[in-house]
Amino acid sequence: MEDRLRAILTHAADAMIVIRTDGMIEGANEAAARLTGWTEDELVGRPIQVLMDEPYHSSHQGQIERYLESGVSGILYVGPRALPLRHRLGHTVPIELSIGEAVIGGERMFIGACRDITKRLQVDEALRAANAELRCTVFELETLSVGLATQKAALEALALETEAARRTAEVANQAKSRFVTTMSHELRTPLNGILAVAEALSRRDLTDDDLELVTIIRSSGQGLLSILNEVLDLAKVEAGALLLDPGPFTPAEAVTAVGDVWRFAAEAKGIALKVSFSRLPATLLGDAGRLRQVLSNLVNNAIKFTDRGQVTLAARRIGRGSNLRFEVTDSGPGIEEDQRERLFDPFIQADAGTTRKHGGTGLGLTICRELVTLMGGRIWAENAPEGGARIVCEIPFEVTDAVAPPSPTVALREPGEAPASGDPLILIAEDHPLNRRVAGIVLEGAGLRYEFAEDGVAAVAAVKTGRFDMVLMDVHMPRMDGLEATRAIRALPGPLSAIPIIAVTAASPDEVSECREAGMDDFVSKPIGAAALLQRIAEHLPPAD
Fold first, then answer.
1. Which one of 82, 122, 255, 448 is separated from 131 by 20 to 30 angstroms, measured CA to CA?
2. Measured CA distances, 197 to 3, 216, 523, 530 (Å)
3. What is the chain's alpha carbon radius of gyration, rounded to the nearest angstrom?
């Protein structure tokens, strides 16, 4: 039995120490020797206090004596408890201790079982540290969650404010659009009269002084019309309503036409306007009208800022494709580097004195940039190597096999020459007396016959007679507007429904679309320009007329 017990103690993983009631060590196993640093033989006969640190070292023997007297102990059979064990080398080792009692050879003994819990404490400490870090992380996450919730609420509130601001801006933009449309219509009516009468007067036999006055009236009216068009185009840009109307055109004719328009203005300032182009395709697909608008703005701008020398408009093909490069170069003062990008901002000119000296709204280059961008191109400003400024734009077009339409012409008759009885009869549907008179002046100048209808109802009734070859239709009229009148005419039986109808209005993009949907064939913007109106008439009348 002793051999069995010794074998068990020897191979036990826990340190086993047998203690007599006088506190002396009776025996120990190999695990106890490894734990304490003493050999088994060295432990036997030593007081158990050699393995104890304070306060246990001083109180241990008294606790044994009290137990022997009273039979009450606080450590026997109460489960493992953590204590420090003093190692032979002087340091302490954390252990877990369990104590039991036994009678061996008729003598009461205490048996202590203990194990090194250093690693377990390290694990526990690591777990505590990890738990503490986890708690900190949870706290941070909770704090972050609260912050995110606060930010979310703030963003939702901001989104509501933004949406409210967007709706307010839309309402304001709609109000602005209505205001711009109304002002456009109201301003174009008197401009219509000014320009048409001035044009008619310029073709009469006037004295030089009177002709100069008429020229001033025409120039001033054209200046007002230019400003009005720029403001309206800017409104279209802001509303995203600036549209293109692509079709086949001849690029050389477009460039030449711009040069012809501005040649007299250049000569009036004593400067030369040179136009050149090379390797341009015969026909391209694009918005020729908007291209001419861009080039006209650039040439006009160059003439405005050039006091002597020349302005050059050059166009050429880039590589072998259909992309074109346009350059407008002047011999003016040039552009400071820090001003080049700002030139394309609305209402911006190179310096404050520019507006006072040369006039203008500062919108021309802004509109050019928007139009070039809309056409898929780019535009920039630079100083010309020989001095002066240069505006360059590169625009992609498509090559097409379609034939560009020829420019129709209408010969103006001499003042007082009566129209021939076989000439076309045109119905002018217009409620405003001034606009009626203006249209009449233009048609009289071309020797065309005309009659008036003061509203849409009268216009439909007149067309039913079958006497008219064309209708010039105002859009806004009392009783029945031009759109409703057009729909009524298109619903008439037989050839009457096919009569050409041209809208004469201060057309916005929406209004142009409505005109086409109602069945109108074309439109002319107010104020009426004789050339534009007569060109439209020539396009829609039979060739024999």
1. 82
2. 139, 13, 21, 11
3. 51
